[in-house]
């Protein structure tokens, strides 16, 4: 066919040939009469044509003999191929042969198989072919026939031809080690970069391609991850664009419909990502970064219905206005992706070692954070999500360091600072006292330097951001922070300098209920104590005292007042209570002034209950009872049935492990009471002996305090437990008064 | 792999070179490794690993390493509860008894470090030492020692005292 034009070497002719070959290929593949051509002949024809295309138009001999490939030209050629028609024809041919699909060779299969043939297609060209194919995958979706429902990113929704193309790409990668993951990723990237028609669908396709690649090459998952995250970030960017088109919800006038809207808009965050959905009743959390607000109808179950609605809306209305549902849907989509991805990363973890993927994900996220200043928000959220789900060791410190290093560099230090604080508040890692103490230290140092000592004030023109952050911390982490002397000290100093509530809050960044919450905690901790000041500002006018002593709030904040904290930490206070309101100190009774250990160091109380329990486990029960007088926390441990008293009981009296009481009611037994009763009963008979000198004993069964004055009686009695143990299981419960009788 | 070195970095940034086997007594270090190992086995097989310990000061870390090193030669016998004796020397080997004869702040720091680095035998030993400190102290002495306030209401206080009287 086209061979006769092969001999000439001039550039012009080569170009002509290109077009000719492409035309040939295209017409060959779309030829309506190909049914008549025997398949073998057809295949060889395709091979010939393709080899011509490759040799003639995509390679240019260079000086050192290495063939360089013109991507553009090959792309051009392949673009001329009418894929849609080929596929339609193939499908048409497939239909009557459903039963023998496997053996049937269709034009598309022929094309693909001939592409695999190394004699036809020089291996060096595979790269460029893959790139072109990827391009096709990404952009050439001619209507519904290619991707039926492109809003979903599952491969199931793909048309067979697209699936085949992807299979082909994957197969190529398996056959040819030179086509490594790095290169493929870079091709996908360059494909996306070169095109300016990147839209949500393209991104979704890209996401599903990457997902497929990760599934096929679990060991190379790490290489594909950055791209995957990038794609998700792009989706986020689109989301943000959509979101910015929405009318802003102002703080002052939260009408009913607006509340609803803001809930939806805030539905895109970490909490959603890990499947939490807090109820919308807590309006106070509205503007919190990591907290999700979904109303009952917008949970994941109803996603399917939502999608239908959206699709309908799209087809019905010609003008594609952005709806809130769309945003909710898109965010849910992204959520699903990441969730699925995390799940698959667990699969990877099982093959390549626990945590390896998560660890490297972190590295990737950090690299991205460094290289892409624009997308911090979403990346930090991803990191936070990972932190919550996977918790790689010491990762939170890296994340915090990263955030921290940006506070001074970033254009918007306030945002960084708020992020830092949000992370401290929301991440469960900081429920651990040590972690929180370590993480909060730089913040305290900075605030001290900037605000109290007024260094580098140009960077931080107003102190409000920092004060606001401190107020948030106080509200949500107050219980722990109040035991941190530096925090108390700083707060006390600040409260002297900034006496007005207005200075402590960033107006218009938080919702009204949140603002109230912050104010309450500030006031309860004694940072400013005079009520009328607040009332003057009109902040508290409409809420009469009821919120102040809200019974549902934990009393911890109140007991952790600045005054108490300073007193117990033993710091000489630079702060004097501005009024003598007894409420200020009523939260706690410091029975006597303390003479603290001035040497400092770590107070044992900064460590968790577990450590304290460990210490207590070495103490006798008398000491534990005695220690209950020392303080609340020690009392709690001294009252802990399961963790303190059960081991004591077991250690001292021993238990029969097969005792049905242990399995049936193990959690409800009052081990302390059991212990004390048995202990007293033993005390009574401790000097009693029978005539042979045998010490009197109690029945060893839990809760049975019968006393036995001879070995035979004890044996006889215990045999009754064996026979009736099952029937009496319930009657022998602890709450029944133990019978005391001398047998 | 046997003679590999791990770098432990204290709060101040001081770095201690510790044999891998010794450092592995800390579950924190161990976890860090087991994650790293599978992941970069091609690249940095030979690289010396560094583990930051931002909660542990240099003197404390030094003491912890001392403990872990000695543990390799003479394993500490597990402490049996209920305790058979009230003195350290009768509960653990002499070296370990002497190891925790330090001032109170150091002891508390050691507890914190053992907890953070997750070294169970060291945590046991230091907690035992703390529990021995507690013995025989009055409530007020204990509050001072641990730098805490009572926070108990008079009723709670009375109740606790009553129960204590029962136990006496």
Describe the structure.
The complex is a heterodimer of chains A (743) and B (168). Chain A is mainly alpha-helical. Chain A has 33 helices and four strands. In chain A, the strands form two sheets. Chain A has a two-stranded antiparallel ribbon. Chain A has a two-stranded antiparallel ribbon with strand order 3-4. Chain B has a single domain, classed as Potassium Channel Kv1.1, Chain A, CATH 3.30.710.10. Helices cover 56% and strands 8% of the residues of chain B. Chain B has a three-stranded mixed beta sheet. Chain B starts with a strand and ends with a helix. Chains A and B meet through helix 15, helix 19, helix 25, helix 27 and helix 28 of A and helix 2, helix 6, helix 7, helix 8 and helix 9 of B.
List the helices and strands and how they pair.
The complex is a heterodimer of chains A (743) and B (168).
Chain A: H1 11-30, H2 39-58, E1 59-61, E2 67-69, H3 71-80, H4 83-94, H5 107-116, H6 123-139, H7 160-175, H8 181-194, H9 200-216, H10 221-244, H11 256-265, H12 270-273, H13 303-316, H14 324-352, H15 356-371, H16 376-389, H17 395-409, H18 413-426, H19 433-452, H20 464-481, H21 485-497, H22 512-524, H23 531-536, H24 556-559, H25 562-569, H26 583-586, H27 609-616, H28 621-627, H29 632-639, H30 641-653, H31 660-665, H32 671-684, E3 697-698, E4 707-708, H33 711-728
Antiparallel strand pairs in A: 1-2, 3-4
Helix pairs in contact in A: 1-2, 1-3, 2-3, 2-5, 3-6, 5-7, 6-7, 6-8, 9-10, 10-14, 10-15, 13-14, 15-16, 17-18, 18-20, 19-21, 20-22, 21-25, 30-32
Chain B: E1 5-9, E2 15-19, H1 20-23, H2 27-39, E3 49-52, H3 58-73, H4 88-91, H5 94-99, H6 104-117, H7 120-134, H8 139-146, H9 154-167
Parallel strand pairs in B: 1-3
Antiparallel strand pairs in B: 1-2
Helix pairs in contact in B: 3-6, 6-7
Domain F-box (chain A): 601-648
Protein name (chain A): F-box domain-containing protein
Pfam family, one (chain A): F-box
